[in-house]
Amino acid sequence: MKKGVMRPGHVQIRVLDLNEAVKHYVELMGLIEMDRDQEGRVYLKAWTEVDKYSVILRESYEPGMDFMGFKCTSEEVVEELRKELLARGCEVEDIPEGDLKDCGRRVQFRAPTGHLFELFATKEQTGKWGVGDHNPEAWPRGLSGMRASRFDHCLLYGPNLPETLDLFSSVLGFDLAEQVVAPDGTRVAQFLTVGMKAHDVAFIHNDEPDKFHHASFFLETWHDVLRAADLLSMTDTAIDIGPTRHGLTHGQTIYFFDPSGNRNEVFAGGDYHYPDHPPVTWDADELGKAIFYHDRQLNERFLTVLT
């Protein structure tokens, strides 16, 4: 049952050198710098996004993800979900309006995997960059690099996958769209969606909590993924794997690293999900094909390099 959570709203990523990170996310990936705040954080958006920003970069001594936020349909929904989270015994913190620039109050909670998430309903809307929402052109001129069109999802590593699935499904209204299951029936990976996308957030089992695997951004076509690969080579950016296709979700993808070691993905295509669809299941002994459909074998770095 849907609870009023609409979609991923933003992710705050820790970077070691802010100037290098801004160059990577703006010039190479094609995000647009929208603002900065007194703490030195940089606010970015992809061109199709209506809200003012979806990525926040914060300089730190170690890379990784601070939190991922989901946008809700109303402040009333945020308050109702806050009560449900508290009733479940979740660790909840109220973040006042304005703590993030031009964003309303946020309700943060710690998932059983150890990751910090938050819910919000209000953020300044600046419209699609370069085209607006009145007689818009097909795409804006002046985009850089890969021309990423939206922040799509995060993949996160941590323990307690059953408890995390229960929290996201029963409280927040997410569906289990796809899963990887071990021979003993244990779910070792779960891909959760709150709409029609293949996933909005995904989790893979890891004994150590609160680990960040990647933030993913959507491109329009397979040709755009190939062009992204060219740009990575042109800029000598570290590539993890690809371009290739996933078995899971069937998206066309390439993975690479920002200057701080955080993994990024850009992808095109992918499956869709309706609430009446049963979860797609992959056997764990087919994990190589599930992740890298063409190679059919795992890249060890993909499983072990986390921030």
UniProtKB/TrEMBL annotation:
GO terms for molecular function: catechol 2,3-dioxygenase activity; ferrous iron binding. Its EC number is 1.13.11.2. Keywords: Aromatic hydrocarbons catabolism, Dioxygenase, Iron, Metal-binding, Oxidoreductase, Repeat. Signal peptide: none annotated. PANTHER family: FOSFOMYCIN RESISTANCE PROTEIN FOSX, LYASE, PUTATIVE-RELATED-RELATED. Residues 7-122, 150-269 form the VOC domain. Gene3D superfamilies: 2,3-Dihydroxybiphenyl 1,2-Dioxygenase, domain 1. NCBIfam families: catechol_2_3. Its cofactor is Fe(2+). This is Metapyrocatechase. SUPFAM superfamilies: Glyoxalase/Bleomycin resistance protein/Dihydroxybiphenyl dioxygenase. It catalyses: catechol + O2 = (2Z,4E)-2-hydroxy-6-oxohexa-2,4-dienoate + H(+). It is an enzyme of class 1 (oxidoreductase). Belongs to the extradiol ring-cleavage dioxygenase family. It holds the Pfam family Glyoxalase. Homotetramer.
